[in-house]
Design brief:
The protein is mostly beta strands and 162 residues long. It has one domain (10-131): Sandwich (Immunoglobulin-like). It is built from one helix and twelve strands, in the order H-E-E-E-E-E-E-E-E-E-E-E-E. The strands form three sheets. A five-stranded antiparallel sheet has the order 5-6-3-1-11. The longest helix has 16 residues, at 2-17.
């Protein structure tokens, strides 16, 4: 019994250390300029945050794959880190400029909004196929909005005796 109690305390203390770790949300895209007939990949990475993900609406681009979700948890020297990735493979069907709407990440008291992303699609007369899988970070800043605190209910539930 004591071992179980000690193990539980150790696990809880490891999880509490997570709050002191570096946390954030990063938006990355393989390329913001592509040739017609090629796809690009968009990835949102969340580090050390517990959030709900709401992906963007892709009204102008065809989604070939996604949202693909990847989750990782690591314990190194007693420190826990967690990360979640949400990725999409996008395919433009015409030449032009496209805009990807923001994605939203909601925690208990904060809503994070990623910046909109623009993609330029160029003509491809030579039929070049790109295999670019190197991501580059989107430079624009994400906005953060504090959510109003929920009001306490004055109604109390009565306990029933069984």
């Amino acid at each position: 019994m004591n071992r179980l109690l000690i193990s539980t305390c150790i696990m809880l203390s490891m999880m509490c250390r997570l709050t002191g770790q570096e946390s954030g949300i990063i938006t990355e895209i393989t390329s913001d300029t592509i040739y017609l007939g090629n796809a690009c990949e968009l990835k949102y990475s969340v580090k050390n945050l517990e959030v709900q993900f709401e992906g963007p609406e892709f009204t102008e681009l065809r989604v070939i794959s996604g949202p693909n979700i990847s989750t990782s948890m690591q314990f190194i020297n007693g420190k826990m880190t967690s990360s979640h990735s949400y990725s999409y493979t996008l395919y433009p069907e015409e030449i032009g400029s496209y805009f990807i709407e923001p994605a939203y990440f909601t925690s208990a008291d904060t809503v994070y909004e990623t910046p909109p992303i623009s993609i330029l699609v160029l003509p491809n007369p030579e039929g070049i196929k790109s295999r670019n899988r190197t991501f580059k970070k989107v430079d624009e800043q994400m906005t953060r909005k504090e959510m109003p605190k929920k009001q306490e209910s004055s109604f109390r539930k009565k306990k029933k005796k069984i």
